Amino acid sequence: MRHVINLSERVHLFPPKPEVLSERQKADHIANIKELLIEKEAVMVVHYYTDPEIQSLAEQTGGFVGDSLEMAKFGHKHSAKTLLIAGVRFMGESAKILTPEKNVIMPTLDAECSLDLGCPVDRFSAFCDAHPEHIVVVYANTSAAVKARADWVVTSSIALEIVTHLDELGKKIIWAPDRHLGAYIANKTQADMLLWQGECIVHDEFSSNALKDMKNVYPDAAILVHPESPASVVQLADFVGSTSQLIKAAKELPHPQMIVATDKGIFFKMQQVVPDKELIEAPTAGVGATCRSCAHCPWMAMNCLKSIELALKKGGDQHAIYVDDIVRLKSLIPLNRMLNFATDLQLHVKSNI
Ligand code: SF4
């Protein structure tokens, strides 16, 4: 049996757009960042949704581009003293939780996530307290405090496997905060899930009607969809998966064109993997001023070359991530559960090859 709760308040604050830089300014920032990375013994760990020039710089300087789970693993293993995390704040917090001995800095601490903002720890904790018979599974896109209240943390690349595992153990599940991903997983697994009603403003905006029209224009294209999208969009997909899984699918599917329903920042890495294929942005419900995100996360867009240079130069309270020790130790437990589960799963997969 599946339950759905309704929350009347959803917090969607919109950050300012970053300053537009000239080519000369960009080149200066890039040169300075390269020097600072060496001087500070730092490495760039960046998400697929950041701007292509940031992803490219991370690759040029020995850093990493990936999804949030891969970012956390890379930062944990790397020998750098400082991790420069370009993404949104929960990614910086996850890095600090896993690697407290390192200096974790971000271009801006104001880079939020609508899922994190829509799941404040006090209300979420009260909700969990009201359903003590449920195991608490939260998506990585949450604050350290919400993770500390959870039994499991998951990312979109491993959520299905973990919920299947818990369902097989007969557990009832509280799922937070993304309602679309939660509904997708509940539908796939038939697990007993109580869904928190959060949403990603980027994926929530993809439109199934406009996508059907687009498919008529590109009949040979495969449709790739991130499961944070509405069910009506997921239903049209040839493949549904996390960012890394979508990139892999773009390579493996035979189609010459891909219509991609996730943040368009992913095109930088996806195009590297399929240089001969045409990548097409899936349509959102609005265009220009009428869409909330226009398929690009406004908080991811706050990561810019200028703010990366500032973070490396200054560090300090405006850029460094701090996580309270008690919260950190509590949140480490569900995070490590996920990482250990992922490791076991890989071993299992390998042993079956
Ligand atoms: S794309 Fe969506 S889920 Fe990702 S950080 Fe932005 S608002 Fe959050």
UniProtKB/TrEMBL annotation:
Pathway: Cofactor biosynthesis; NAD(+) biosynthesis; quinolinate from iminoaspartate: step 1/1. One of its GO terms (molecular function) is quinolinate synthetase A activity. Keywords: 4Fe-4S, Cytoplasm, Iron, Iron-sulfur, Metal-binding, Pyridine nucleotide biosynthesis, Transferase. Catalyzes the condensation of iminoaspartate with dihydroxyacetone phosphate to form quinolinate. Its cofactor is [4Fe-4S] cluster. Its main location: cytoplasm. It comes from the Bacteria. GO terms for biological process: 'de novo' NAD+ biosynthetic process from L-aspartate. The keyword Nucleotidyltransferase does not apply. It catalyses: iminosuccinate + dihydroxyacetone phosphate = quinolinate + phosphate + 2 H2O + H(+). This is Quinolinate synthase. GO terms for cellular component: cytosol. InterPro entries: NadA, NadA_sf. It is found in: Cytoplasm. Its EC number is 2.5.1.72. Gene3D superfamilies: NadA-like (3.40.50.10800). The keyword Metal-binding applies.
